[in-house]
TrEMBL record:
InterPro entries: ATPase_AAA_core, P-loop_NTPase, RecF-like. One of its GO terms (biological process) is DNA synthesis involved in DNA repair. PANTHER family: DNA REPLICATION AND REPAIR PROTEIN RECF (PTHR32182), SLR1056 PROTEIN (PTHR32182:SF25). Keywords: ATP-binding, Nucleotide-binding. It comes from Enterovibrio norvegicus FF-454. The keyword Nucleotide-binding applies. Coiled coil: none annotated. This is ATP-binding protein.
Length: 386
């Protein structure tokens, strides 16, 4: 489980360290930085699948994603006594992302190349990475460090250099995830790789989730929901079938959901609704019903990840369904750490009733995302290694 997340200089997040619990609920007005926080977490996840530099480039590169405000915000600026204005930068541009967990912590820092004769002057590169023990980085808790192309690993009281020339676009996880020589790197990579992000499921008439599909065992629903029927059948056969029936009954009293196999081996949904003489197929379900069923398949996964991130799961659901969704999310939080970003009051209120719910309300102060009620010194301890 992650115990804290820290971000610096990413979009509206100049500097933020959040304490995390089993079920984290992120709320806040439009423009407060909820999506920016989500994107930062997704970018962090890309470090473990070889895509962090490309993802940053796709988002517009470092110049676009970098905090556009001043390097420091003075008390006088906060009070409104003086205008917000930039001063000469004292520090080099560094976008930093990191987390601590109940096993290892990780931090990465990205920047621009040193001035050089190259057309790739705006190509971001990895400047620094570190894996550490404990709640936050201290030199004594550091286990693996990467600086430029050099990677060193702690061996008792000594440091052993295990690489001198890793490319600046490769992370530690791309170059050193061999469990025998760098067990911590392997462990952290596998943890990050297990994180699962669900954004907006498609439910339009051509949505893949509506179509019959070849039934292969599917313990993890695809992020666009294309393997919905197979994922549901997998829950029925090897997962928590009872919880599935319960979730349907909770949201749609009197209804039943079945998965049927066609002659050609393809799976299709059948949704039995009170008052109808035949079940409805996936193609016939309403957007909201289909979306709720997608959330059931995602949240009751027989292979729960370390972390599951749900971005605005209320989209296109009727407010009456939201308490049932909150109960489903609460159930999933027994097996995975959950991160929910939401706008919907009914969902927020229902999640807040859950004993494990850790609510984080964001606000924007002078263009900067802050946690409501968290003073400058109230957050968890955090140090950047660099
Ligand atoms: N590079 C940047 N530097 C500073 N602020 C930025 C930068 N890029 C985007 N922003 C700010 O981030 C804000 C958008 O944040 P975000 O999309 O996370 O909001 P949100 O809380 O998800 O809002 P909504 O509820 O509307 O989806 C915008 O107000 C924009 O001004
Ligand atoms: Mg948003």
């Amino acid at each position: 489980m992650l115990t804290s997340l820290s971000i610096a200089n990413y979009r509206s997040i100049m500097s933020l360290t959040l304490p995390l619990g089993a079920l984290n609920l992120i709320t806040g007005p439009n423009g407060s930085g909820k999506s920016n926080l989500y994107k930062a977490l997704r970018l962090l996840a890309k470090t473990a699948s070889g895509g962090v530099i490309n993802s940053l480039a796709e988002e517009g590169g470092l110049h676009s994603t970098y905090w556009a405000g001043p390097e420091t915000i003075s008390d006088a600026m906060r009070r409104g006594d003086v205008e917000v204005q930039g001063t000469k930068r004292n520090n080099v541009m560094r976008l930093k992302l990191g987390f601590a967990s109940d096993t290892f912590g990780y931090a990465i820092s990205l920047g621009l190349p040193a001035p050089q004769q190259s057309a790739f002057a705006f190509d971001p590169e990895i400047k620094h990475e570190c894996i550490f023990n404990g709640d936050y980085y201290r030199p004594a808790s550091s286990l693996v460090e990467r600086k430029g192309g050099v990677v060193k690993i702690r061996q008792g009281r000594q440091w052993e250099v295990i690489s001198q020339h890793i490319p600046n676009y490769d992370s530690l996880f791309d170059s050193h995830a061999d469990p025998a020589s760098a067990a911590e790197v392997f462990h952290v990579r596998e943890m990050i790789r297990s994180w699962r992000f669900y954004d907006h499921f498609r439910t339009d008439s051509d949505a893949p989730a509506r179509k019959p599909q070849l039934g292969t065992r599917t313990p993890v629903l695809h992020h666009d929901g294309r393997d919905l029927a197979a994922a549901l059948q997998t829950i029925i056969e090897i997962g928590d079938n009872e919880a599935l029936d319960h979730a349907i009954e909770d949201a749609f009293p009197g209804c039943k959901l079945r998965v049927v196999t066609k002659d050609d081996g393809r799976f299709s949904l059948e949704f039995f609704q009170k008052g109808l003489l035949r079940p409805l197929t996936g193609a016939e379900l309403s957007d909201g019903t289909l979306r709720f069923v997608l959330w059931i398949a995602a949240l009751l996964t027989p292979r729960p990840p370390a972390l599951m991130v749900l971005n605005e799961p209320e989209t296109s659901l009727h407010p009456d369904l939201l308490p049932a969704l909150a109960r489903l999310i609460g159930h999933a939080s027994q097996h995975s750490q959950i991160w929910v970003i939401s706008h919907a009051n009914r969902l927020i209120n229902a999640l807040n009733e859950h004993p494990a719910c850790h609510s984080i309300a964001l606000e924007k102060v002078l263009g900067q995302t802050e946690v409501q009620g968290q003073g400058m010194l109230d957050g968890p301890n955090w140090n950047w290694p660099e």
